[in-house]
Specification:
Keywords: DNA-binding, Phosphoprotein, Transcription, Transcription regulation, Two-component regulatory system. GO terms for molecular function: phosphorelay response regulator activity; transcription cis-regulatory region binding. It holds the Pfam family Response_reg. It is globular, with a radius of gyration of 18 Å. Helices cover 39% and strands 20% of the residues. The longest helix has 16 residues. The strands form three sheets. Strands 2-1-3-4-5 form a five-stranded parallel beta sheet, sandwiched between helices. 34% of the residues are buried. The chain has 235 residues and is an alpha/beta fold. It folds into two domains: 118 residues, Rossmann fold, CATH 3.40.50.2300; 99 residues, Winged helix-like DNA-binding domain superfamily/Winged helix DNA-binding domain (Arc Repressor Mutant, subunit A).
Length: 235
């Protein structure tokens, strides 16, 4: 298979160079950009499997770029920023980022997160190279094609990020079962879940916004207060 391409975007060229060198040692092909507009151009001309995107940049910042990217692509996005407040992390996740790491970053942690995100992404779509199979989970008006990795609501396709898809797949394949935030995080992110309620909550909110866009739509994804989240057929 063609070598995995990672796009690294930061207005600090030294940071881009350092991350690129780190990832190239792992065997990845690294593309470079220095602001959000350059990142969008790179995505339109290259087949990219993952992005590392700085938040604070000139011309177009990372959050604005993420919003633009999510209008047409589901490529995994790892936000990189010096900001450490939970509110900033939640803002990044809320607009479509898949994960968040702060500067100064631990190189080993960065590589581990990249590998975990790529494992999830490459296992989801056609990149996995699996032959098409008839494998569909339905829950009322929701239909999840596990081969095509496509969710539809009353027949209309819904665009999900890789992380959102894995959450939906977990919950739809286990209807009625309540998962707490730590369980969801460990199953979806494949990492131990400690103090992850906000991260999971943001992704749950994004999913609900996508599948319950009409106020009259049934509520499939439900919060069990104090316990966790579940999906079940609406009454």
């Amino acid at each position: 298979m063609e070598q995995t391409k990672i796009l690294v975007v930061d207005d600090d060229r030294e940071i881009v160079g350092a991350i690129a060198a780190l990832l190239e040692l792992e065997g990845y092909t690294v593309l470079r950009a220095y602001d959000g507009l350059e990142a969008l151009d790179a995505l339109h001309t290259h087949d990219v499997q993952l992005m590392i995107l700085d938040v604070m940049m000139p011309r177009m910042d990372g959050l604005s770029a993420t919003m633009q990217i999510r209008k047409e692509k589901n490529v995994p996005i790892l936000l990189l920023s010096a900001k450490t407040e939970d509110a900033d992390k939640i803002a990044g996740l809320a607009i479509g980022a898949d994960d968040y790491i702060t500067k100064p970053y631990n190189p080993m942690e960065l590589v581990a997160r990249v590998k975990a995100m790529l494992r999830r992404y490459l296992a989801l779509g056609t990149l996995a190279g699996a032959p098409a199979r008839e494998n569909v989970v339905t829950l009322g008006g929701l239909s999840l094609d596990l081969d095509e990795k496509q969710l539809t609501v009353d027949g209309a396709p819904v665009r999900l990020t890789a992380t959102e898809y894995r959450i939906v797949a977990l919950l739809m394949q286990n209807p009625g079962r309540v998962y707490n935030a730590e369980e969801i995080y460990e199953r979806v992110w494949n990492e131990p879940g400690f103090s992850v309620e906000n991260t999971v909550m943001v992704h749950i909110r994004r999913i609900r916004e996508k599948i319950e866009i009409n106020p009259k739509n049934p509520k499939y994804l439900k919060v069990v207060w104090g316990l966790g989240y579940k999906m079940e057929k609406a009454q």
